[in-house]
Amino acid sequence: MWGSDWPVLNLNGSCTAWHATARRLTSHFEKAEQDAIFGANARAFYRL
Questions:
Q1: For 8-48, how does the pLDDT look when each residue is reduced to its tens digit (9 = 90+)?
Q2: Quick check: helix, strand or coil at residue 47?
Q3: pTM of the prediction?
Q4: Which positions ≥6 away from 37 have C-beta within 8 Å?
Q5: Helices assigned H by DSSP within the chain
């Protein structure tokens, strides 16, 4: 499950930049795995 420490990360970057970096770091995963990391796991955990 992806997350950030916003707003603290704004002291040395931005949420947009961190999200883009996380996407690059996980780009070798299959699409379903990326979808899980960036949303599906949170939806399942929080029963949304």
A1: 888 888 999 999 999 999 999 999 999 999 999 999 999 99
A2: coil
A3: 0.79
A4: 1, 2, 26, 29
A5: 15-25, 31-35, 41-45
